[in-house]
Structures are given as structure tokens and as C-alpha cells.
Give the backbone structure.
Amino acid sequence: MISRDLAKKIRYIQITTSRAANSTFAGEYESVFKGQGIEFDEVREYQAGDDTRAIDWNVTARTGVPYIKRFVEERELIVMFLVDMSGSGVFGSIEKTKNEIAAEICSLLAFSAIKNNDKVGLIVFTDTVEFFLPPEKGTRHVLRLIEEILNFKPEGVKTDIGAALDYLGRVSSKKTVAFLISDYLDSNYEQKLRVMNKRHDLIAVTISDPREVDLPKVGIVRLLDSETGEGIVIDTNSDKVRRWYRTKALERKDKLKRTFFTSGIDQIDIQTDRDYLKSITTFFLNRERRLKR
């Protein structure tokens, strides 16, 4: 049994995000994802007028007769959510924590997916993969997905994005739309990002809090890393300290953007003090515009 408070939170997320999925993203999801994937159907002999780029040279060489590959549009997609539940996800200086925002984003995108008859699944990870919910359809399945994120009690506190990507590779043989939702407080995963994006449609969803960029003036404080346990004491009244802190944070964000750009990965930049609907809407519009070129 789930608690009354958790049930109310799940119901609230269901109402708000399903409404947005039916109105704001009614056509955007289908135009951006549906019809973009194709799967192999068969080979047949080449006929006059066929596209020569579709020739299967291996079969042609083996038979001595030109053959082409036929592909059909994928009618059903698999959407996977890779959600980082490491220690830093419980942080939130405004109204909601990063983990709560992650649950709402997954809900919004999941309701958009099942509206288009697609399957959705979930991978929860910290420094290892801690939970896997196989892809399925239907509202009940989406509600379970939301519950798992909101009610999850992780064993690990650190982050290993590479481990999550490896796991995705093992459980998803079919091309998958994968939303990797994290604050990306990790390193040495860039190569795996590039490799996995060649096999799947990988989308980076970065979640950050304004206090991770700008420190308020509250005197001398001890900052504790929620994933490593390490801490430092700083004077937040010092302009020099706050400028240093902001510079380091912006450098990390810029480095992330360059990593995604060079890897050919779309990024949805989410901040806990801003409306994530606008960020996701911008993502859909930009991707749709690019696909029409």
C-alpha cells in the first residue's frame, strides 16, 4: 500500500501532466518521433525505378542478381526513461526537488507516448542500476512508473551514467527513444553517450537548481557534496567567492552543452525554478523544425 500523501501526489501529477500531454503536446510528439524510425522488412529483387542506395550488396554478390532492402515505418516505439536517483537528486531550493521534477517530466512524456500507442519503460540508477521496469502500454503502467520514481529509496548515493547506458544497451535491442534524466554530476561517460546515441535516439534532460549557480549572501556556510560526503567552508558574503562559484558552475554547464553537441545529442535544459513545460515545448519545436529541413 502507498501512503495517502504519495497517492495525492501521483494523482496531482497525473492530472496536470496528462492534460498537458493532450493539449500542448497533442501533435508535437507524433510529428517529432513517429515515422522517424524505420525497421528492416525484407529483401527483394531490384526493379527498374528502385533507389540504388537500397541495394543489398552482400545478397547481390552472393546471388549474382541485384537485390534491395525494403524497410517499413515503425508503428510502435519504445520510450525509455533513464532516471538518476543519486544523492544530489533530493536537492531543491525552490518548491520541488530534482527528483520530483524528474517524475513530472517522465509523466508528461509517458502520457504523450501512450497516447500514440507506444510503450514506456524505466531504468533507475545511482552508481549502479537499481531498478528496471520493462516497457509496457497503458495509463496504469504510467502511474506505476511515476510511483516508482516518487517512492524510490536508492541504496547508492553516487552517479554512474556509463553503467545506466550499458544497461540500456543490454535490455533494448530495438531502436529506442531514450530520455537520460540527470544533473550529470559524473565524469568519463562521454564515449558511451556517443556509442549509445548511434544505436538509439538518446535525449539528454539536464536538471539543475539556481543555488547550484548563484549563492545567496548568508554568511559562512559549509557546502556538503551529497554524493561524495566531502565538504568545504566558504564565506558567501564574499563577492569573490560567489563569482568563483558561479564561474565554475557555468563552465561545467558549457562543457556539458559542448559534449551533447559534439555527440549529436539533443538537450532539454530544465531548471527547478522555471516552467519545464516551456523547455520541453522548445525542444519539440526545434526538433520538428530541424526534421523538416
